[in-house]
Amino acid sequence: xxxxxxxxxxxxxxxTADIAFLLxxxxxxxxxxxxxxGLARRLPPPPEPDQEVDDIIVRERNVLQVILNFNNQLMxxxxxxxxxxxxxxxxxxxxxxxxxxANDENLPEKHPADIPYFGNVMITEKHVISLQxxxxxxxxxxxxxxxxxxAAYNEVRDALxxxxxxxxxxxxxxxxxxxxxxxxxxxxxEAEPKDYGGR
Length: 199
Prior knowledge:
Blueprint: H1 16-30, H2 53-61, E1 63-68, E2 74-78, E3 81-85, H3 87-99, E4 111-115, E5 119-123, E6 128-133, H4 139-165, H5 174-183, E7 188-190
Parallel strand pairs: 1-6, 6-7
Antiparallel strand pairs: 1-2, 2-3, 4-5
């Protein structure tokens, strides 16, 4: 008995494109996307044209230089120090620099300020942490340094919030957070990467 040539029935694919489009929209709507966030930085003010020598000395004490070389070695200049340190030491050095608890003459000068919730207080409003890195430094070490500096600000702000309201900074309302930021403004200046030599 001869077999007849049977034709395989075609699959109706007219709605396949519609289904694929609906699946694409579904996944776009339900998937959360990671958004890159920039690091908030505030640059120091430019020097005045009629700046005196005393002002320059005062400005030097207000700047903590954090320098990362091509060997991933970290040097800190300022606050009466100039030494190579480990990244793990940076947070405590930065916290002391930001707060200047003993009003050390090598650390940032303190100025009176009238801040809501705190009244008339002495703060180091003109301090700047200057971060400079060599082009040969690894990205991970650079990010670790950034994390330590931001963590230093977070910790001093948390300590201030705890002493005033018995809450962490993140738990405060907007006006309270603004007052804490005014008390401890985040001032990190990033210089353009350079070649510091040694290769």
